[in-house]
């Protein structure tokens, strides 16, 4: 980056203030350049603009209302020469040396500041206030015909007082001008920093293949990069300041500016090209100040999607879920989540117990994701899914020629593939005894021996095992090694059945229904499925746990998507297991129904009658809460 020149400052002043400013010109040197623009502020605007366009001015210094006028008319920093308490006191002392009678003639704002300083300065002086030159002249006429005091005021007041034959003292001091110069230097420094940031951002935007535009609250373009300008067929400089919807109506950001809500991933056709748009509000300090549009070629997104899918195929051993994906507010599931998070901080083996469908692999993935091994592989194997010979090869790997049909060059086993990661062994209770012995050696020695190999391979792997069986009973029957059990059961985690989780059924059903309906492209809300399902399943024990609930929700979602509604009769036909369970124990269903309503009422009371808060705490929608309470009336 080229070295920046020293700041170039201009002082806009007339008469007495201009004379004082000349005394500061000699102080300009290596730090800054200073030039005097000796004319009234309103007349100086055009001259200052010319100097700025010529690169000869970075900031302006002026006094009083002149600074305010210039600040509103120019695009460069304007520093104001301010009057301090010291300036007032110094000017009054100088005036009283000339005449004991001194008058401060000033505008309203400075008079208000003077009033706040009077107790500090110990002055009894009452200032005369004027709003314009005509009013100032009337005050001076009166003073010239009466006591003829010394007048203290601005450069213009000093000039007018002279025309009336009155002595006058300028209220500004040299120190005030020097302070304004320092303020102008700081404003220039900040402006240059911001300009450098802007230029850097412009370079970034210019390098993007995606189209980007930012607009203000009037939808006028503030920034547009070359990609977007070329897309709509305009020059970037010409587009700035014009409304985006005038350049291309299909790219309008009016709705985002009005609602303050973003619109993501919308497909739009511009100049015959299919693009994916993102329309987002632009916020500063919590307030919306505009909106941003980005456009990306749909073909580029498709290429990226294909690449991601290919990467996923090349790296199959990865965890998809975290502990945050474990839904539920029941005490037992919350305790399980807390234990899982605690266990994630260690490297010890974990044994997860629980009935089928309770989410054992979900917890295993969550522990891996929260552990220091998160960047390593997550390798899962269901021990009940393979015959013994194939399971041994899958788990331990083999050398070339180890058995008929073995892979040329050999094959690493899943234990090797889990190196520096996590090995999840599901249904560990179904692992054959000979393989249990080999697995125990891996855990003890931290090395694995492939089939047909003579040299073991060192491995760094954490094992998480899971079972739906009661392993102590399996051990008593001689089908599971006691030493392997204690090697695996260093950290123990038992997952509750769905029937033990109370209102979590509603929470889970709502999430599962929303996901299923979204996949099917249905427009119906999740409540259209959840409400009749929950009503029909009161008292049901859910023997298949969360997996059964997921399957049932998927089944009902397909029907709801096809028919638009889901009645109780449809539930009975599509899920006869629920009806059978209720018919077998109607009193249990009624008891559960009553208990559920009592729970809703209790939570509602805890929330002070706030239905929105109660619904959120229960994990249901406000509509569902309203319907259940209405049925209870």
UniProtKB/TrEMBL annotation:
Top-rank taxon: Bacteria
Alphabetized InterPro entries for the sequence: AAA+_ATPase, AAA_lid_NorR, Homeodomain-like_sf, HTH_Fis, P-loop_NTPase, PAS, PAS-like_dom_sf, PAS_4
Protein keywords: ATP-binding, Nucleotide-binding, Transcription, Transcription regulation
Limits of the PAS domain: 197-250
Sigma-54 factor interaction domain boundaries: 326-558
UniProt cross-references to Gene3D superfamilies, sorted A to Z: 1.10.8.60, 3.40.50.2300, Homeodomain-like (1.10.10.60), P-loop containing nucleotide triphosphate hydrolases (3.40.50.300), PAS domain (3.30.450.20), PrpR receptor domain-like (3.40.50.10660)
Name of the featured protein: Propionate catabolism operon regulatory protein PrpR
Organism whose genome encodes this protein: Chitinimonas prasina
